[in-house]
Amino acid sequence: MTSPAPDDLLAALRDVLGDRVTASAAVRDHHARGESYHPPSPPDLVAFPLTTEEVSAIVRECAQRDVPMVPFGAGTSLEGQVLALRGGVTIDLSRMNQVLRVSVEDLDATVQAGVTHRQLARHLQNTGLTFFVDPGADATLGGMTATGASGTTAVRYGTMRENVRGLTVVLADGRVITTGGRARKSSAGYDLTRLFVGSEGTLGVITEVTLRLQPLPEAVAAAVCGFPTIDAAVQTVIATIQLGVPVARIELLDEIQMDAINRYAKLAYQALPTLFFEFHGHSDQEVGEHAQTVQALAGERGGSDFSWVTRPEDRARLWRARHDAYFASLALRPGAKAWSTDACVPISRLAECLVESKHDLDASPLTGTLVGHVGDGNFHMLYLVDPDSPEEMAEATRLNERLVKRAQDLGGTCSGEHGVGIGKMRYLAREHGTDALDAMRAIKKALDPQGLMNPGKMF
User: Fold this and answer.
1) Which residue range is the domain that position 376 belongs to?
2) Which of 62, 125, 140, 359 counts the highest number of beta carbons within 10 A?
3) Which of 46, 67, 94 is the endpoint of a domain?
């Protein structure tokens, strides 16, 4: 732990921000946690900049005093990325919420880091364009960039790494750099954009993001289908991908999750391992053909009650059930906290990884659910725990470690989209090797020699 921020820092930041910096206990407590099981850790001060120039001024004042800094968006991170482990200043970017530019002709947009996913979607209405990376929560675009987020549509449209074209970043000494650009390709120098995507605030503060947009599909169909086993559902996914059906989403929910959704939203789905699909195309005939192809593949593997819809209200109802999964799981054990973890494996090994992980959970005294973006091999286990119970936390730790190591042994990764934070640090050396980890540390040292940017994360 470091000592509290110097007394003169508050005065210096008030010269820059006025009353948009505070030492209020209530505000500090709000910024002490994300959406995770990790214990809260509050900052000494919270600052609310409106511009890149203000962020630069905050960083310079902190760097001069050796004060740690933690970027904060919407607080939806799941691996402790926003915890102020060493105190210091939390830089809350939520008020930097301007959509700076949209180009319909070039299919791109530039936003401040505090713009949320839903805010951008509203801004793009009537343009014929959308931004498809959807993590489920209404996260900020800066936070999504910093964690390398993805979500339900990554199987077709990619993750933030594929959809960020350029950045404005404040470095650890207050200098401001721009990376990438609006051109569709470049071979000019190191790819600094990809360096900062997924860096979790450990290398600098992202203040603006230039994003790739997509045309809205002319026709959309959604479908749902239950299966007798997890393996049968995953084999249907593998067959769909290998056949080249251009699905936009494939989501898997286990029978416990489906029962939870039924209870939470008063629905009547069968409590079976279930796949949710979405198909995008140029006509109703095209998406209908895709749905019928997948229906046949599902039927060959025991899928039942395959139903698909095209009306927007029917599709919204189906996907609302999927997006309610987190809160439906919490409702299974009122008062519990969610320990949500994720892993990603080559799709050919997905069935093996899922079945063994599900067996571990079924044999455990903990209640939990499984949900996954299985079209790209990514899935989540959610364990319901009492954080004050050492026995339950130890059991969740055991389950999580078995899941992560199993995924790594199958050629996968400890995190497909949640990131590293503090929750996955212990697995990085096993995944990348010590030499690669040393290379990462060298990059960190070069860009943040004082170790002030989100310290205690990743390494």
Assistant:
1) 338-417
2) 140
3) 94
